[in-house]
Amino acid sequence: MDKSELNFSKMGGLIPAVIQDSETGEVLMLAFQNQEAFEKTLESGEVYFFSRSRQKLWKKGETSGNVLRVVEIFADCDDDSVIIKVQHDPNLRVCHTGKRSCFFKSVQCRA
């Protein structure tokens, strides 16, 4: 698909971007991209996001060193979210808490 087919209009100019380890399939994080962050990701091969709290573009790893390198990008069927499969040093931690993945808290289900 062409990058112009992505729909950034549904969430105020943002799309969810699921970050997945290309080798293990582990989901590492979820963040948001605006069109500029998505295009910078395509151009550079490193993942950029849009910070909703700071209202600015940021490159993953610019301060922590935990750079995420793009392997593949997939859009969903509605063209309003993406999975970005990345390659990164397995010793680095993606989550700002120091964990490998942002998804480490188990939620108990009553069913």
* The CATH C-level class name: Alpha Beta
Shape: globular
Taking pLDDT < 50 over at least 5 consecutive residues as the criterion, the unreliable ranges are none
CATH architecture: Roll
Helices and strands: which structural class?
Answer: mainly beta
N-end to C-end Cα span: 40 Å
Q: Strand fraction band? A: 25-35%
Radius of gyration: 14 Å
Looking across the biggest beta sheet, what order are the strands in? 2-1-6-5
In terms of topology, how is this protein built?
Elements: E1 15-21, E2 27-33, H1 35-44, E3 48-51, E4 56-59, E5 69-75, E6 82-87
Parallel strand pairs: 1-6
Antiparallel strand pairs: 1-2, 3-4, 5-6
Brief description of this entry?
The protein starts with 14 loop residues before the first strand and ends in a 24-residue tail after the last strand. It has one helix at 35-44, and strands at residues 15-21, 27-33, 48-51, 56-59, 69-75, 82-87.
